[in-house]
């Protein structure tokens, strides 16, 4: 099969270029395996990966125009193009700079406590609402890869007006955390929650199949509507 790879080093290159080469296809081959063969036998290319099992999110990139984690994405015999994940500055070739979004996510995921945290607080049964335990467990496995936000048409259209599905997962995670005392619904609304059109592309590209992005957005929206937080643009 013919593989085409995006090459660009901002420190020396005036513009990106594409390099193509043949990679032998094998049944059940992943896109990561094809890229590794290209790197080792056709031309060296900078890319990132670690776990190779959809946990770290480091191998997220565009494959034939669709964002994915290449470590778990099967590839078929034919022509394929690898490009850096959309929406992020390119460091080199297929490696992008996620430092900005990682910093934002870290702030959101930090648990907010408005009163002292004690053993009684943790052990009190009234603090544990198991209604959302399945969602909470699923969101634990968000790899923060950025694939969902790279696929989102609203992110592409509105930019900073809508934080994107990856950040909404973070707000929802703390919203259903019984020990978090932050107003995560208000934060999500302020980050453009109601700009989500519920198209489902985030669900289609997400490698963590237990995370249901559209349902999570709806949960946050319902909580916002109950508190009369629905913004005027969503009427």
Automatic annotation (TrEMBL):
Xref: Gene3D superfamilies: 3.10.20.30, Alpha-helical ferredoxin
Report the EC number(s), separated by commas if there are several: 1.3.5.1
Q: Which residues cross the membrane?
A: none
- Asked whether the UniProt record includes Oxidoreductase among its keywords, one would answer yes
Q: Name one Pfam family in it.
A: Fer4_8
Q: Kindly give the InterPro entries that the UniProt entry links to this protein.
A: 2Fe-2S_ferredoxin-like_sf (IPR036010), 4Fe4S_Fe-S-bd (IPR017896), 4Fe4S_Fe_S_CS (IPR017900), Beta-grasp_dom_sf (IPR012675), Helical_ferredxn (IPR009051), SDH/FRD_Iron-Sulfur (IPR050573), Succ_DH/fum_Rdtase_Fe-S (IPR004489), Succ_DH/fum_Rdtase_N (IPR025192)
Please list the cofactors this protein needs.
[4Fe-4S] cluster; [3Fe-4S] cluster; [2Fe-2S] cluster
- Going by the entry's taxonomy, the superkingdom of the source organism is recorded as Bacteria
Q: What class of enzyme is it?
A: oxidoreductase
- Keywords on this record? 2Fe-2S, 3Fe-4S, 4Fe-4S, Iron, Iron-sulfur, Metal-binding, Oxidoreductase, Tricarboxylic acid cycle
Q: What is this protein called?
A: succinate dehydrogenase
Q: Which organism is it from?
A: Muribaculaceae bacterium Z82
């Amino acid at each position: 099969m013919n593989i085409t790879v995006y090459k660009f080093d901002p420190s020396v290159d005036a513009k990106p270029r594409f390099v193509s080469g043949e990679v032998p296809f094998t049944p059940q081959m992943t896109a990561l395996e094809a890229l590794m063969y290209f790197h080792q036998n056709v031309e060296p290319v900078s890319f990132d990966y670690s776990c190779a099992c959809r946990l770290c999110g480091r191998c997220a990139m565009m494959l034939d125009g669709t964002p994915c984690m290449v470590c778990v994405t099967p590839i078929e015999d034919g022509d394929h193009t690898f490009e850096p994940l959309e929406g992020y500055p390119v460091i080199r070739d297929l490696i992008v700079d996620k430092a900005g979004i990682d910093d934002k996510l870290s702030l959101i995921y930090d648990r907010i406590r408005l009163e002292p945290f004690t053993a009684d607080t943790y052990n009190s049964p009234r603090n544990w609402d198991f209604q959302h335990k399945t969602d909470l467990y699923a969101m634990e496995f968000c790899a923060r890869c950025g694939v969902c936000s790279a696929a989102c048409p609203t992110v592409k259209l509105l930019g900073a007006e809508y934080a994107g599905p990856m950040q909404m997962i973070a707000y929802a995670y703390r919203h259903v955390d019984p020990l978090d005392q932050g107003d995560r619904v208000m934060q999500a609304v302020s980050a453009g929650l109601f700009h989500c059109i519920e198209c489902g592309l985030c669900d289609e590209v997400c490698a963590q199949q237990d995370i249901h992005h559209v349902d999570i957005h709806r949960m946050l929206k319902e909580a916002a509507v109950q508190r009369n937080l629905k913004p005027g643009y969503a009427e």
